[in-house]
UniProtKB/TrEMBL annotation:
<keyword id="KW-0812">Transmembrane</keyword>
<feature type="transmembrane region" description="Helical">
    <location>
        <begin position="7"/>
        <end position="28"/>
    </location>
</feature>
<feature type="transmembrane region" description="Helical">
    <location>
        <begin position="55"/>
        <end position="74"/>
    </location>
</feature>
<keyword id="KW-0472">Membrane</keyword>
<protein>
    <recommendedName>
        <fullName>Nitroreductase</fullName>
    </recommendedName>
</protein>
<feature type="transmembrane region" description="Helical">
    <location>
        <begin position="81"/>
        <end position="98"/>
    </location>
</feature>
<keyword id="KW-1133">Transmembrane helix</keyword>
Length: 143
């Protein structure tokens, strides 16, 4: 049987971890996440350097793996592990991360507050930083 309080707690913990890593990457160098920025911002700056690309992959690969594996590992602590629980538990844990990403990181931080550390040099003042629709469409696509 699904334990919804466990799913919620694990989803929120994973969301907090997700937010910390993403904000850390943005503070260090917002260009590490250049591919996640609106197209017009991407086109107005040079492509990632090879160093930025390597660092993005070095952080992104283990980060993505952990985000995908952690919900499955937490399923092992469920009282009953049926096929349905093994499928739904990680799915529901991960489903919590997506709206947190949309509301907290994309809409609140990126669009509403827009702190200087996430602005890529040479793009300050671009209207795409306030494009709520771009982030909502990305959320619907699952990116």
């Amino acid at each position: 049987m699904l334990n919804f309080s466990q799913i919620f707690i694990e989803g929120m913990l994973l969301s907090i971890f997700f937010c910390i890593v993403i904000v850390g990457m943005l503070v260090y160098n917002p260009r590490l996440l250049l591919n996640d920025y609106p197209q017009s911002i991407q086109l107005s700056v040079p492509p990632k350097t090879s160093k930025e690309t390597k660092l993005s992959k070095a952080i992104g690969a283990p980060f993505a793996a952990l985000l995908m594996i952690a919900p499955f590992i937490s399923t092992l602590y469920c009282d009953e592990i049926s096929f349905m629980v093994a499928f739904l538990h990680p799915f529901l844990v991960f489903i919590i991360v997506s709206p947190v990403d949309l509301v907290v990181l994309d809409w609140l931080m990126f669009c509403f507050i827009t702190p200087d550390f996430l602005i890529i040099p040479g793009t300050k003042g671009m209207s795409e930083y306030k494009n709520y629709r771009f982030h909502f469409i990305a959320f619907l696509k699952g990116t």
